Amino acid sequence: MQMINKVSSRFFSHPADVPLSATDAAGVLYFGRLFDLCHSAYEAALKAGAKPLRAYLTGDIILPIVRCEAQFKQPIYCSDSLRIDLGLGEIKDSGFQIHYHLYRVTEGDLLCATAMTHHVCIDRHSRQRVSLPPELVTMLTPSP
């Protein structure tokens, strides 16, 4: 797998409010729900791209997540207003990483958590790795 590029600049920003249903009895975000927030931001980025989101769901390629990680820096509470910044990590011929930075906007953009998802591009039918579509690479790569 040959690396195309490695960047870390933001390519998309998404607002999110933490619902009560995402928190535990203490009103703190349940750890697994962090990925729900991140994935919602990822979906919003895809929707904002040139290709309709439905095309990614019905086309010949799929983009499963094969690895993910997260780190909490501060508690995230019910009703917190967040800004989720998405940045491109490593991008290769058939895969890419998205880095997420979650900021509490009501506290001067306090960094509360970071996360990463590693996606691979595979053929829907053969389940073999294939090259990323050019329009996806363009969407993920910030303009200079």
Briefly note the CATH topology name: Thiol Ester Dehydrase, Chain A
What is the mean predicted local confidence, pLDDT?
Answer: 89
Low-confidence stretches: 1-7
| CATH class categorisation | Alpha Beta
Beta percentage is: 35-45%
Q: Give the domain tally.
A: 1
What is the CATH architecture assignment?
Roll
Order of helices and strands: EEHHEEEEEEH
User: Overall 3D geometry?
Assistant: elongated
Residue share in helix: 10-25%
Please write out the topology.
Elements: E1 3-6, E2 10-17, H1 33-48, H2 53-58, E3 61-62, E4 65-72, E5 81-92, E6 95-104, E7 110-120, E8 122-123, H3 134-140
Antiparallel strand pairs: 1-5, 2-5, 3-8, 4-7, 5-6, 6-7
Architecture overview:
With 144 residues, this protein is of the alpha+beta class. It contains 3 helices and 8 strands. It has helices at 33-48, 53-58, 134-140; strands at residues 3-6, 10-17, 61-62, 65-72, 81-92, 95-104, 110-120, 122-123. The strands form 2 sheets. Strands 1, 2, 4, 5, 6 and 7 form a 6-stranded antiparallel sheet that branches. Strand 5 and strand 6 form a beta hairpin. It is elongated. The model is unreliable at 1-7 (pLDDT under 50).
Tell me briefly what this model is.
It contains 3 helices and 8 strands; from the N terminus they run E-E-H-H-E-E-E-E-E-E-H. By secondary structure, it is of the alpha+beta class. The strands form 2 sheets. Strands 1, 2, 4, 5, 6 and 7 form a 6-stranded antiparallel sheet that branches.
